[in-house]
Design a protein that fits this description.
Layout (H helix, E strand, L loop, with lengths): L12 E5 L8 H16 L3 E5 L3 H9 L5 E3 L4 H4 L4 E8 L5 E2 L1 E6 L14 E4 L5 H13 L16 E4 L3 H10 L3 E7 H4 L12 H6 L17 E6 L3 E2 L2 E5 L7 H10 L2 H4 L14 E3 L7 H10 L9
Parallel strand pairs: 1-2, 1-3, 7-8, 7-9
Antiparallel strand pairs: 3-12, 4-12, 4-13, 5-11, 6-9, 6-10
Helix pairs in contact: 1-8, 4-10
Length: 305
């Protein structure tokens, strides 16, 4: 990992950022949080974008970072050297969902119809973009082989760089008949009533209220094929051996932050942070992620770049 993360000699707290979405400027998105934390604690915060999901967690293990924005899949892998500070929430919701969608006029009616077809997923280590959808396909009776650490058998699965591009490839490439994304990327183009059969989504998803509101000439209607079980949102973690005097103050400030602290009103929509709060969480909250990895025969370290 040498060279993929910068280091600081200034005594600043090193906040490592997970490259979950390649199309976003994650440092700019996190700058309001950095400014809030510095104002609340008088600590100096350095934001450092990692190169991969695995590098984000390894920065805590190798003392190249003090605190990190990690993926849910990092929790089981970080046992013994990384502590959970809290789970990020969006508009009050601590749970989120994965979806598999097709075009409104598609002949695909169910997941079993995807046999022999081409489908896109998100980044290889994305919980909602790839791992949960792969398990959904497997549970529907399709042979997914050792995807995403190899090829599927009953259909062709292709990784897209992120959720948005998985959805866009479905719309723009006639060879692709379905797309897996987090619901935050698909729900605006899925009519709300299509989610009504999924009671947990209706109850817990922050995307339900505005489902279908983004359909227009440039963003055509999508049809829902399946919704995952609830998934715990991503955590913020700290290096277990970090004993800096500012640690308690930073952790308290994170858990007490409200939406205006994280997403100020004057922030450009393009650079808004995707979450609006952080609540306390434990490792047991991430047991669904352990189950997904076990079902797919994967370990977090399988996804090193």
């Amino acid at each position: 990992m040498a060279g993929c993360l910068s280091s600081t000699e200034s005594g600043a707290v090193r906040f490592i950022l997970n490259p979950a979405e390649e199309q976003t400027d994650i440092v700019q998105e996190y700058t309001p949080m950095k400014e809030y934390l510095e104002g609340e604690t008088e600590a100096e915060i350095e934001l450092i974008r990692a190169d991969s999901y695995v590098d984000t967690l390894e920065s805590l293990e190798t003392d190249q970072g003090d605190i990190a924005d990690t993926s849910p899949t990092a929790v089981p892998a970080g046992d013994g050297f990384a502590d959970i500070i809290g789970m990020r929430t969006a508009y009050g919701g601590a749970l989120y969902f994965s979806t598999i969608t097709t075009l409104a006029d598609s002949d695909i009616e169910s997941l079993s119809d995807l046999e022999g077809e081409v489908m896109t997923t998100g980044a290889r280590m994305s919980t909602s973009g790839t791992l949960a959808p792969t398990l959904m396909l497997k549970d529907a009776g399709l042979d997914t082989g050792n995807y995403p650490d190899g090829d599927a058998v009953d259909l062709e699965l292709q990784n897209a760089p992120d959720h948005d591009r998985s959805r866009e490839q479905l719309v723009n490439d006639d060879a692709i008949v379905a797309a897996a994304t987090g619901a935050f990327a698909s729900a605006p183009q899925v009519p709300q009533e299509q989610f009504d059969d999924y009671s947990e989504f209706v109850e817990h998803s922050s995307e339900y209220e505005d489902a279908g509101s983004g359909i227009d000439d440039e963003n055509p209607e999508l049809r829902l094929l399946a919704v995952s079980d609830p998934l715990p949102r991503a955590p913020i973690m700290a290096r277990s051996e970090w004993d800096g005097s500012e640690r308690d103050a930073i952790e308290t400030a994170l858990l007490e932050a409200d939406e205006t602290d994280l997403v100020p009103e004057d922030v450009d929509d393009e650079y808004e942070l995707w979450f609006t709060g952080i609540e306390e969480a434990e490792r047991s909250d991430y047991e669904p992620i352990d189950d997904i990895l076990d079902e797919l025969g994967l370990e977090f370290q399988d996804f090193g770049e």
